[in-house]
Write a structure and sequence with these properties.
Blueprint: H1 2-5, E1 14-17, E2 20-27, H2 44-51, E3 66-72, E4 77-81, E5 90-94, E6 106-110, H3 113-119
Antiparallel strand pairs: 1-2, 2-3, 3-4, 4-5, 5-6
Length: 121
């Protein structure tokens, strides 16, 4: 789904995490030219650059363990979480308000991206 649509907004945007309603603003995209695109601020690399020091607790990490894939209402992000399994990520919400530099706060949403998409049907 992410590769096929490369961004965009689902029809059903709401899901619940820890008894809290979350809403997808937009799925992030991958762009070749972020500077000349109206969607440049939604490029995954652009978002990573802005918040990468808040997505890990390991300052020596090369790459990322939490990959933002959607912007949520109020500044949080839906992320693929590779911390437990490097090949099959779970899906979590990264909390903007609660996270600090080298101190990410996340809430598990689903065991896989497929499981997450079933929540939006």
């Amino acid at each position: 789904m992410l590769i096929k649509t490369n961004g965009g907004s689902p029809v059903k945007k709401e899901f619940i995490v820890k008894e809290r309603m979350c809403m997808i603003t937009t799925f992030l995209c991958v762009l070749e030219d972020t500077e000349h695109s109206t969607h440049g601020c939604y490029d995954i690399d652009v978002v990573l650059t802005q918040i990468e020091d808040r997505l890990t607790d390991n300052e020596d990490l090369v790459g990322c363990e939490l990959l933002p894939i959607a912007e949520l209402f109020a500044g949080d992000y839906l992320c693929l979480d590779y911390r437990a399994d490097k090949n099959t990520p779970s899906v979590c919400v990264w909390s903007y308000e609660e996270s600090g530099e080298l101190d990410p706060v996340t809430y598990q949403v689903a065991g896989s991206f497929d499981e997450f998409t079933m929540m939006l049907q």
